[in-house]
Design goal:
single chain; alpha+beta; Alpha-Beta Plaits; four-stranded antiparallel β-sheet; three-stranded antiparallel β-sheet; about 20% strand
Amino acid sequence: MNLANYICDLLYRYECVIVPHFGGFVTNEKSARLDKSKETLYPPYKQITFNGHLKNNDGLLANYIASVDKISYECALNYIKFEIESWMDKLRDEDLNLNGLGTFSWTDGKLHFEPQNKTNYLLSSFGLSSVLARDLHGAEEKDSPEEKVLPPVIPLQEKKAPNYLKYAAVFVIGLSAIGFGAKMYNDYRTDQWVAEAQKQQEQIEQKIENATFVISKPLPALKLELKTEKKSFHVIAGAFRVPENAERKVGQLLQQGYEARILGVNRWNLTVVSYGSYKTRNEALGALDSIQKNVAEDSWLLIQEF
């Protein structure tokens, strides 16, 4: 799931869901109303608003992601950070549409939010949607007793069915039973054939798996010893949804003298870029401290072998 789906899940149970370093989605319960101009009846619902000042992490969203995906709390925070960076990258060029929540856009240098009203997050409304009032009114008029004219009731005389009709009915029922039995027999034969074919296929695959190939004069094995330096400590410059942005960031860092590179794509399909990689934790922490003081405060340390 993407980050918007986690937020939607929480809005059913909570009145406020804060996305750290981005803002909070707040819900306000609204009563049922009738829009006479549109002739539409709206059930009770939760109205979604966005507050850009609610940026402090309260742990609700990160803990929920960690419990659903069975990951650590720190990994959940990193995932949220990656998603927010991708949101901001997209907002630089176009509007950001979050399914189930609404649309963000820049208007006069300010972040504007337009909520969606397709989903009813109020549990007591049981997912009810809007209803056209004119359809209800039309149905009442249609069923009005003043406009209904009932035809006169004519009593029916009971007639006994001729004997030949009884025999014909018994004959039809017998044919139906025979046809149904034939169909059951054909289905049984088909199932038997499919089961036998699957059994033969499994036996062939088992023979292939157990087969061994013997070479009369095998070549001597070559032993190669390669010395590689493992650099498992990485100072991260950012993670990007668009690979071209990651390549552009690497080019900028290389021009600045860093040994930058793309580490790969993480589990959230984000391309991770590092300032540099180091063999020991102390080297990496020293570089991280220098970068946070002089270049970027949001840089962080990743410990992983690539």
